[in-house]
Amino acid sequence: MRYQFEFRPYQRRFLRSLTTNHGKWDIREGIILRLTDETLRVGWGEIAPISWFGSETLEQALDFCRQLPEEITDETIFSIPDELPACQFGFESAQEWESKFFSMPNAPCPMPHAQSFSALLPSGKAALNQWEILWQKGYRTFKWKIGVDAIADELKIFESLIHTLPAFTKLRLDANGGLSYEEANLWLRICDNLKANAEVAIEIEFIEQPLPVEQFHQMLELSTSYETAIALDESVATLGQLAACHQQGWRGIFVIKPGIVGSPSRLRKFCHQHQIDTVFSSVFETAIARLAALKLAAELSQNNRAIGFGIDHFFEQEETWFQSLWNDL
């Protein structure tokens, strides 16, 4: 199949800076793709890289798009190198786009009934004020960033949070690889004690990426030493990393960010072959990439875990952003 290829870069400003162990993030930048095939069917895709998480840079993605001709083929799409995983996802998503289901790329994303969203809380004390607003919107699983401030301060906030959240809430703690080995043990020990405490009615579902990527074997050891589950995130950012961790014995939870993991077709093949325990998660993409990611999540999720796409409250809702982007030549 041949396609007419067009692309547009975009910028979206966060309502408040997103703070993680990797630093502050103020503007989400990416690229919207449009493929028009020989029957004039239009497919939309999105390249939303996060270079500090393991994908290519935005500039590398732009360079790749700029060097492509105006007409590309399926062969072009399936020969995108593994060094450009966000590009692989964006182009394959555009090729697979099912326009018969969705009239506009910026329409609200449908959510399968069997799934639920996990909402991202702001780091630090702000989480104590934000959770209730999100609870009223229907969220029952939350993710809170740790490893951002001094551990003593975070443990005090955590203590307040677990006694404030309603019963049967699920809470995920995401360190973004920012804990030391000693700190990871402390968090896991505290979470195990909470699990054993019948008076605490909330569930710590898992601690996400407690240690840096290069400390995989320590995380493997920790995963067998505590009751509290560990999920890998930065360690499995791309398909190559995902396969390597599985090969080295990881049988815990894999957090998959479809927007940067790489080829959707190869991801399907891997998940079907190995039946891994997955949590699908956002890269703060627009509705275009989110649509493709949610389809993958609905198809490949095994254990009915809440998926990490509760991030709309981090952006202004701009109904006309897409039309403006595409028409603003």
Mind explaining what this structure looks like?
The chain has 329 residues and is of the alpha/beta class. Helix content is 37%, strand content 24%. It has twelve helices and twelve strands. The chain has helices at residues 58-67, 74-78, 85-96, 126-136, 151-164, 181-196, 216-223, 239-247, 258-261, 264-274, 287-300, 321-327, and strands spanning 2-20, 23-37, 42-47, 71-73, 117-120, 141-145, 170-174, 203-208, 230-232, 253-256, 277-280, 307-310. The protein has an eight-stranded parallel beta sheet. Strands 3-2-1-4 form a four-stranded antiparallel beta sheet, with helices on both faces. The protein is globular, with a radius of gyration of 20 Å.
- SS elements, strand count: 12
Portion in beta strands: 15-25%
Distance linking N and C termini: 27 Å
Based on CA inertia axes, which overall geometry fits?
globular
Helix vs. strand class: alpha/beta
**Parts with pLDDT < 50 across at least 5 consecutive residues:** 100-115
**Helical proportion?**
25-40%
Quote the average pLDDT. Answer: 91
Give the H and E element order: EEEHEHHEHEHEHEHEHEHHEHEH
Strand order of the largest sheet: 11-10-9-8-7-6-5-12
Instruction: Describe the main β-sheet briefly.
Output: 8 strands, parallel
Radius of gyration: 20 Å
Number of helices: 12
